[in-house]
Amino acid sequence: MTLADDIEMVRGHVSLGRRHIAQQRERVAVLERLELPTDKALELLDLFESMQDLHEVHLSRLLAKAEDRKAAKMPPHIC
Protein backbone atom coordinates (compact mmCIF):
# COMPACT_ATOMS: atom_id res chain seq x y z
CA MET A 1 0.00 0.00 0.00
CA THR A 2 1.40 3.39 -0.95
CA LEU A 3 1.46 6.45 1.26
CA ALA A 4 -1.22 8.01 -0.94
CA ASP A 5 -3.39 4.92 -0.43
CA ASP A 6 -2.88 5.13 3.34
CA ILE A 7 -3.84 8.81 3.33
CA GLU A 8 -6.98 8.11 1.32
CA MET A 9 -7.96 5.24 3.63
CA VAL A 10 -7.47 7.30 6.80
CA ARG A 11 -9.36 10.24 5.29
CA GLY A 12 -12.24 7.80 4.85
CA HIS A 13 -11.94 6.76 8.51
CA VAL A 14 -11.98 10.42 9.59
CA SER A 15 -15.05 11.13 7.47
CA LEU A 16 -16.89 8.04 8.67
CA GLY A 17 -15.96 8.84 12.27
CA ARG A 18 -17.44 12.32 11.95
CA ARG A 19 -20.71 10.81 10.73
CA HIS A 20 -20.78 8.27 13.57
CA ILE A 21 -20.19 11.01 16.14
CA ALA A 22 -22.94 13.21 14.69
CA GLN A 23 -25.37 10.28 14.64
CA GLN A 24 -24.51 9.30 18.20
CA ARG A 25 -24.95 12.86 19.43
CA GLU A 26 -28.40 12.85 17.87
CA ARG A 27 -29.21 9.55 19.59
CA VAL A 28 -28.14 11.02 22.93
CA ALA A 29 -30.31 14.08 22.30
CA VAL A 30 -33.33 11.89 21.52
CA LEU A 31 -32.79 9.86 24.68
CA GLU A 32 -32.52 13.05 26.72
CA ARG A 33 -35.73 14.45 25.21
CA LEU A 34 -37.50 11.21 26.08
CA GLU A 35 -35.97 11.30 29.56
CA LEU A 36 -34.41 7.87 29.03
CA PRO A 37 -31.04 6.68 30.33
CA THR A 38 -28.10 8.03 28.36
CA ASP A 39 -25.17 6.41 30.18
CA LYS A 40 -24.37 3.75 27.59
CA ALA A 41 -25.00 6.09 24.67
CA LEU A 42 -22.63 8.64 26.19
CA GLU A 43 -20.00 5.95 26.80
CA LEU A 44 -20.21 4.98 23.15
CA LEU A 45 -19.99 8.62 22.09
CA ASP A 46 -16.87 8.99 24.22
CA LEU A 47 -15.37 5.93 22.54
CA PHE A 48 -16.20 7.31 19.09
CA GLU A 49 -14.60 10.65 19.98
CA SER A 50 -11.46 8.94 21.29
CA MET A 51 -11.18 6.89 18.11
CA GLN A 52 -11.73 10.03 16.05
CA ASP A 53 -8.85 11.73 17.83
CA LEU A 54 -6.61 8.77 16.96
CA HIS A 55 -7.71 8.81 13.31
CA GLU A 56 -7.05 12.54 13.04
CA VAL A 57 -3.60 12.23 14.61
CA HIS A 58 -2.83 9.36 12.23
CA LEU A 59 -3.95 11.46 9.26
CA SER A 60 -1.84 14.40 10.41
CA ARG A 61 1.22 12.18 10.65
CA LEU A 62 0.65 10.71 7.20
CA LEU A 63 0.17 14.16 5.68
CA ALA A 64 3.35 15.40 7.36
CA LYS A 65 5.22 12.38 6.02
CA ALA A 66 3.93 13.09 2.52
CA GLU A 67 4.96 16.74 2.84
CA ASP A 68 8.43 15.71 4.02
CA ARG A 69 8.83 13.40 1.04
CA LYS A 70 7.66 16.15 -1.29
CA ALA A 71 10.11 18.65 0.22
CA ALA A 72 12.97 16.15 -0.04
CA LYS A 73 12.37 15.81 -3.78
CA MET A 74 12.37 19.57 -4.43
CA PRO A 75 15.65 21.05 -5.67
CA PRO A 76 17.30 23.60 -3.36
CA HIS A 77 16.64 27.26 -4.10
CA ILE A 78 19.41 29.10 -5.88
CA CYS A 79 19.96 32.59 -4.51
List keywords for this structure.
79 residues; mainly alpha
Q: What share of residues are in beta strands?
A: under 5%
Return the average pLDDT rounded to an integer. 95
So how many helices?
2
Domain module count: 1
Stretches where pLDDT is under 50 for at least 5 consecutive residues are none
- Sketch the major β-sheet: none
N-C termini distance? 38 Å
User: What's the overall geometry?
Assistant: rod-shaped
> How many β-strands, per DSSP?
0
Describe this structure in words.
It is rod-shaped, with a radius of gyration of 19 Å. α1 packs antiparallel against α2 (39-73). The chain contains two helices and no strands. The protein is mainly α. It is 84% helix and 0% strand. The mean pLDDT is 95. It has one domain (3-71).
